[in-house]
UniProtKB/TrEMBL annotation:
<protein>
    <submittedName>
        <fullName>TPR repeat-containing protein</fullName>
    </submittedName>
</protein>
<dbReference type="InterPro" id="IPR011990">
    <property type="entry name" value="TPR-like_helical_dom_sf"/>
</dbReference>
<dbReference type="InterPro" id="IPR019734">
    <property type="entry name" value="TPR_rpt"/>
</dbReference>
<dbReference type="Pfam" id="PF13432">
    <property type="entry name" value="TPR_16"/>
</dbReference>
Length: 192
């Protein structure tokens, strides 16, 4: 059932994925993978409270689950950013090669407009998982904010390449990326 749920989620068939994950939870109420699947669907729909509830269920069973912790930190906009940063860094000490933790840290920095720090965190995430279009895209955005346009262009283009190969689809809109690429290319033509 988990495989059925995951396959349906990747196809964007949330109704089938939800049914499969809920069937698993009827048999195993604390199944981590089913809870993560339901949380991911809620995140995709921007249903933050529902996603938080699923992550909290995972954390009640295993308070050290770094995937659930990082996701929960990412959706708790009322969280003190200093505490959130400290907690993510603590998790990174335990799991330095977890790209999703670097990505979460980058998101936290970006939310605070700390673009240099965000660039480093996104770069680390992308370096560890270079097939992830979202990691690549966020790196491009951070470079763009730092006025590193040639590098931003490279990563915007790469994020579009990866988006075509990635399942589930990335969280960014490829049309927006294309418009940004055109704008940056237009700026460079004006300067020439």
């Amino acid at each position: 059932m988990l495989v059925t749920g995951f396959d349906a989620f990747e196809r964007g068939d949330d109704a089938s994925a939800s049914a499969a994950y809920r069937n698993v939870l009827q048999e195993q109420p604390d199944n981590r993978d089913a809870l993560l699947g339901l949380a991911a669907m809620a995140m995709r729909k921007r249903e933050w409270e529902i996603a938080a509830d699923y992550y909290l269920r995972i954390l009640r069973r295993n308070p050290r689950d770094s995937v659930a912790q990082a996701a929960l930190i990412g959706i708790r906009d009322d969280l003190d950013p200093v505490l959130g940063e400290g907690r993510i860094k603590q998790l990174l000490e335990e799991e330095p090669n977890a790209p999703y933790l670097h990505f979460s840290l980058g998101n936290l920095y970006a939310h605070q407009s700390r673009w240099r720090d965000a660039e480093r965190a996104y770069f680390d995430a992308y370096r560890m998982s270079d097939a992830n279009a979202d990691y690549c895209y966020n790196l491009a955005v951070s470079l763009d904010h730092l006025a590193k346009r040639p590098a931003a262009l490279t990563y915007y283009r790469r994020s579009l390449e990866l988006a075509g190969k990635q399942s589930p689809p990335p969280r960014f809109d490829p049309k927006v990326v294309l418009r940004r690429i055109e704008a940056i290319e237009g700026e460079s033509e004006i300067r020439e």
